[in-house]
Design a protein that fits this description.
Elements (H helix, E strand, L loop, with lengths): L3 H8 L4 H7 L5 H10 L14 E5 L6 H12 L3 E6 H4 L3 H9 L3 E6 L10 H19 L5 E2 L8 H9 L3 E2 L4 E2 L9 H10 L6 E5 L9 H17 L10
Parallel strand pairs: 1-2, 1-7, 2-3, 4-5, 6-7
Length: 238
């Protein structure tokens, strides 16, 4: 039987009141409030009309370059929540993302559900993942999002103890699924998109349906075309 605290933490990724109760931001205003309360001024956005594009699970040898190219074509910036085991294999892609003005954040070292891991395993995972990022770009990550968007109670405590700022999402494309299309992904993201929202997509297929990153790249073009048309606002990095 799953304990209630685990259920509560699992709900946070999809349930706004639960996320708010746990202090897990899903929007840019919530993120800025959290950072301000911690005395951190590293994240600067001057308008609540911005939305934040975020990508999980990379870097990927094909998906990440495809996403970077689409972003560059639209002059958009994003945050990449990377996996340490993938960063060690291709640090040059992480450095490229930074050179092109994007933010690198920590997803995990190994893409595994936190509730299935011990406190010691989680501590090691955080340490190795953050070290992989720092080795690649010369600075540690500030933001963190757990695999599957689910913190365990101990996982959340460790993240905060390490000075990592959690960030979930308000809108997602469910682009990891096998039977979806770029049009469905884009429609799901933009259907209820509001100023200040954080959007979740994936630039890799390591932990999802094969070739899913190809659909995401096409969907991103559709999403950015709508944003460029002024429906929501300017896309900037968190």
């Amino acid at each position: 039987m799953i304990r209630k605290p685990v259920i509560r933490h699992a709900l946070a990724s999809i349930h706004a009141p639960t996320a708010q109760a746990l202090g897990l931001p899903r929007t840019l205003p919530e993120l800025h409030e959290q950072l301000a309360s911690s005395g951190i001024a590293a994240v600067q956005l001057d308008s609540s009309n911005n939305v934040a594009l975020t990508f999980d699970d990379g870097p990927h040898p094909e998906g990440t370059p495809q996403i970077l190219e689409v972003l560059a074509q639209h002059g958009a910036k994003a945050a990449f929540f990377v996996v340490g085991e993938q960063v060690r294999k291709r640090p040059e892609l992480v450095r490229r993302a930074v050179a092109e003005g994007h933010l690198i954040a920590l997803h995990a070292d190994e893409h595994r559900l936190q509730s299935k891991r011990t406190s010691k395993q989680l501590s090691t995972d955080y340490e190795r993942g953050a070290a992989a990022i720092e080795d690649a770009i010369g600075q540690p990550p500030l933001l963190h999002r757990p695999p599957f968007g689910i913190y365990s109670p101990v996982g959340l405590r460790i993240a905060r103890a390490r000075g990592l700022q959690p960030l979930l999402w308000a809108d997602w494309g469910r682009d990891w699924r096998k039977y979806t299309t770029p049009e469905r992904i884009a429609a799901r993201v933009t259907r209820n998109l509001a100023p200040g929202d954080v959007v979740l997509l994936h630039d890799a297929d390591f932990y999802s349906a094969k070739r899913s990153h190809e659909r995401t790249a096409v969907a991103l073009k559709l999403i950015l075309n709508k944003l460029d048309a002024g429906r929501v606002g300017t896309v900037l990095p968190v």
